[in-house]
């Protein structure tokens, strides 16, 4: 991009930000209040965007209303956790029924084993499962289990991988990461990755990998890449942990099953809790059995809310009454149509659409995007302008260009969104400066 184009883009963003502020006085006031008591007014970093973040008052179906009264169609889908939309009747009924039986029971309840059965039925490599409160915790537990069973300390992860707030490997890794010894693999680079696994095998307990890197920008792994990692980890005695916190939604039995990979452990989260706080890890029965508290040398796995009744009831209703194979296939076909339509609309301007099924990324680079290195030239200002312009037209996506469809999104919404994006590019020449 030329210096002149960059200046024009900055001016366009200033205008878009100003318009955003002017039209949202309630949001601005609430942000100022929040800043008095929370750092940056925020308790979940990903939700921050300038000039101040969207603040939503209510949601129903696939729609949300912000605190200033503007309505949007929600294509962010709570970063994949909102698969069921905001007000699914079946899930609401299940939560109400659980609520009527009382909270904080301090004992096993009538839901958890049924949810565990629904999960082991759905995901073939999960023979036994345990619940946590988040995907982050699920990954920490899975890695910790692998460290015990292998007797080795370290982990291998892909550059750009996101496995939770304490396991983030974009941009050289986060300073608040859990202090595991870490070997970095280049996503989709078989030679480098397999060589690194061999080189560090003696110290590696586990490989943790996403079949589609979600937070990194919806970057899909080649199936041959995943197979090469599976073969190498089997040969070297390294646990293969598939992080399916996002990708389990991409096929009826999860992404690994769809591409023919059998991990040792899988981690889950997001929508599987029916929209409530959730995580799970599971896999090989011989490893998971180490947590059996009736055995004398059982590993501990604590968590006051691991089996909280609202999550267990909501997750169970969602898995057994709301989605089935057909719903999941349909959702992901709709996502594929969206991605194709978006790519067609933006590729003439040097942008691309990435992802798989119901997870879609929009990027100001021409692609193909096979690893985060291919996004290094993506101009964040271009993303911001698209985001703010879409908000003005009543569409909500992640500021970084991430989209996750809910089952409430209809075919018309897909068509209308592609038309909205086409319109934004037609009306904003600055966005076309990606080329
Ligand atoms: C692939 C992946 N793993 C783990 C996590 C962490 O899950 P949670 O936010 O529930 O801790 C996320 C969250 O976005 C994720 O995308």
How does this structure look, described?
The protein is an alpha/beta fold and 435 residues long. It has two domains: 3-83 and 326-434, Aspartate Aminotransferase, domain 1 (Alpha-Beta Complex); 89-322, Aspartate Aminotransferase, domain 2. It contains 13 helices and 16 strands. Helix 3 runs antiparallel to helix 10, helix 6 (190-200) runs parallel beside helix 7 and helix 11 (325-346) runs parallel beside helix 13 (411-427). The model has no long low-confidence stretch (mean pLDDT 97). The site of pyridoxal-5'-phosphate has 16 residues, from helix 5.
Strand order within the widest beta sheet: 4-12-11-10-7-5-6
For the report, how would you describe the main beta sheet?
Answer: 7 strands, mixed
Which percent bin holds the helix content?
25-40%
CATH class of the largest domain: Alpha Beta
Query: What is the overall silhouette?
Result: globular
- The N- to C-terminal Cα distance equals 7 Å
User: How much β-strand is present in the residues?
Assistant: 15-25%
Number of strands: 16
CATH architecture label name of the largest domain: 3-Layer(aba) Sandwich
The CATH superfamily of the largest domain bears the name Type I PLP-dependent aspartate aminotransferase-like (Major domain)
Give the uncertain stretches in residue-range form.
Answer: none
How many helices does DSSP assign? Answer: 13
The total domain count is 2
Structural class per helix/strand content? Answer: alpha/beta
Whole-number mean pLDDT: 97
- This entry's quaternary arrangement is single chain
Give the H and E element order. Answer: HHEEEHHEHEEHEEEHEHEEHHHEEHEEH
């Amino acid at each position: 991009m030329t210096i002149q184009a960059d200046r024009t883009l900055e001016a366009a963003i200033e205008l878009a930000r100003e318009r955003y502020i002017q039209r949202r006085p309630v949001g601005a006031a609430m942000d100022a209040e929040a800043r008095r008591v929370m750092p940056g007014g925020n308790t979940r970093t990903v939700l921050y965007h300038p000039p101040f973040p969207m603040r939503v008052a209510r949601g129903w179906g696939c729609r949300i209303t912000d605190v200033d009264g503007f309505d949007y169609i929600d294509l962010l889908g709570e970063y994949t956790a909102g698969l069921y939309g905001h007000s699914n009747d079946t899930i609401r009924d299940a939560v109400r029924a659980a609520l009527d039986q009382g909270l904080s029971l301090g004992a096993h309840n009538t839901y958890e084993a049924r949810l565990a059965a629904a999960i082991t039925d759905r995901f073939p490599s999960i023979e036994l499962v345990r619940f946590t409160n988040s995907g982050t915790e699920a990954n920490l537990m899975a890695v910790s289990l692998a460290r015990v069973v292998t007797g080795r300390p370290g982990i291998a992860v892909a550059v750009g991988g996101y496995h939770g707030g304490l396991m983030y490997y974009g941009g050289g890794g986060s300073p608040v990461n859990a202090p595991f010894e870490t070997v970095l693999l280049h996503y989709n680079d078989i030679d480098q990755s397999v060589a690194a696994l061999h080189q560090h095998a003696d110290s590696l307990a586990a490989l943790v990998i996403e079949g589609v890197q979600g937070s990194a920008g919806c970057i899909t792994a080649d199936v041959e890449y995943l197979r090469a990692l599976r073969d190498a980890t089997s040969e070297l005695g390294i646990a293969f942990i598939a992080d399916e916190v996002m990708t389990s939604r991409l096929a009826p039995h999860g992404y690994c099953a769809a591409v023919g990979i059998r991990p040792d452990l899988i981690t889950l989260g997001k929508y599987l809790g029916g929209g409530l706080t959730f995580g799970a890890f599971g896999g090989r029965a011989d490893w998971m059995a180490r947590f059996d508290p009736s055995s004398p040398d059982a590993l501990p796995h604590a968590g006051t809310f691991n089996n909280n009744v609202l999550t267990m009831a909501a997750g169970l209703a969602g898995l057994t009454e709301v989605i089935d194979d057909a719903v999941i296939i349909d959702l992901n076909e709709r996502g594929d149509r969206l991605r194709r339509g978006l790519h067609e609309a933006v590729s003439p301007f040097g942008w691309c659409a990435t992802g798989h099924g119901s997870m879609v990324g929009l990027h100001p680079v021409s692609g193909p995007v096979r690893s985060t290195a291919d996004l290094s030239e993506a101009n964040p200002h271009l993303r911001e302008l698209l985001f703010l312009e879409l908000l003005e037209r009543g569409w909500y996506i992640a500021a970084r260009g991430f989209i996750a469809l809910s089952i409430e999104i209809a075919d018309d919404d897909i068509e209308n969104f592609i038309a909205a994006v086409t319109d934004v590019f037609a009306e904003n020449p600055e966005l076309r400066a990606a080329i």
